[in-house]
Amino acid sequence: SINMRLVTAVILIGHAAAFTPSTSSRTSLRPVTHLNAGDEFVVGVLGDLHIDPRKMEDYETGKSHFMPIFEEAKGSHGNVAIVSLGDLGESKNCDHNPESDSELFAGTTMCHEMAAGFLGSMGVPYDVVGGNHDLEGLDEFETDKENLEVYLRAHNKDTPQFCRQVADKTLLVGMGSTLFRDAVFTSHEVTIDQAQINWFENLVQTHKAEDGWKVFVFTHAPPNGSGLRVLQENHVVNGCCWLNHSNEEQCQKFINLVREHRCIKAWFSGHFHLGQDYQDSITFPTIDPKEGPYPNRGSCVFAQTSVMRAGTSRDGRQQSRLIRGNKDGFEICTVDHQKDGKIRVDATISYRGDTNEVGVYAHEDEAYDHDKYFKVYQPCAGDKLHPPDDGFKRYDADGNIPPFDVDQDTVAWWYMSCGRALGMLNGNLIEYDSSTLAPLGLVVGADELVGKKVGVINSGLDADTCEMMMDDEEGMEGADCAALAGDLREQAVVMLDESGLVTVVQPNEDGSYWRKIVRNKMVRMKEVRRVKAAKMWAAELMNLEDDSDANVVSSWGPYMTTSGTAKKTAVPGLTAKSAL
Asked: Are the beta carbons of 26 and 97 closer than 8 angstroms?
């Protein structure tokens, strides 16, 4: 068992030790300026602050809960630190700029200076990682680079990442998001740039578990494979659950590093604004085989962190995290800001040598029945000791999955022959990561799917049949059918409605199925302005009293047909007569 003093602490250590960002593979840790008695340490973890300068009461209350903790910790062993998980400002106009009634507070110079002032007012140093709102100063800054420079300067950071030695061979490591305006898809995806990924990989390669190193990681969003509770209605369908969510290779990189490098002992994240009363707000690297399959999460515990201010909570909780550790292991605790800062031990993690650890929950799941709403079903593929869960669909003798009815409660999932995993979730067709079975994104929405049947059929053709069919398809003449026939078994996901209409769900060009349909915020803001301009123009042209009476729709590309010749751009049922 862990023999540690129950000092309720969080924060203080020397100057934020950081690695210099470069393409060099060398990783050197700056010497700590304050490191007391070897192995004991305490770390406080603050979730999404979303500071609103008009509503500071909850922050002052949270601060009052931590101040006595800090004082006790400083008088105990001195190895203390605090980490803020980013999203420092409210993504709304907060009456902060007299010259603009529309500017968002998040990401502005004022936002970061106010956040730095709050975090620094606790009398101890802090580290912070960038979240998906921290570069949202759209009216103040033209580029992400300019916004990032102000963020770094306000928080006295040299780089988006940080590393601090908090105790003997114990590192606190953080990485931050660096894209907003330049995001390929949604701006609210938490994107760790390749330079930080390379830096992190080098760090864990050079601080081996076998040499006694222990690494605690902090990012705004969790990595794919963490097993933490997520929000379908927000983060799943928009493709911003996981770090680097839309980049398949990078998205899988983090969990692969966790599996490979057992120096990574814990990983803390925020982003979801969910409380810490659910047991799946903490996931362990291993579980009793009687309880289920091996989770394959290396030697790492993952922990979700809640929020401090009531107006930012999705489930009513107001909580922060507290880590208390020593050479034998560590505790993960909750500081409950709705209960006068009461500290509750949530999990105890004991080291088993340098490369393994065992976790035990300290209490039952304290969530209420209505909180099941926030839980997203995740398939379970099983292992040598456990079969797949009851939702797993198997192929019949012909290699098909016969069409089955879909309603809001249908639970079903399957692997495609290419290795992709698809399944049903609250009436939606979702793609799951093939390795971790974490939800990736929406394929077909419940509005289109509920009440229909869905199935999987073979679509591959032998070379002779392929040649005969392709010659009749415009743009496909002379296709190399022999090569096509030699590919993996082709399949089609099909939907069937009551009228007999069959819809083929086509994959993306890269083979994935989930729809990356949310563009970044800058693109969408321009689209909104174009629509508003069109409404004003139409109202003037047609002598309408109010531009809201103007009938204006938008059309987008890029794909609407299997034809190899682009002849039409109309959207049936919207900008042209429906084909149905």
From this structure: no
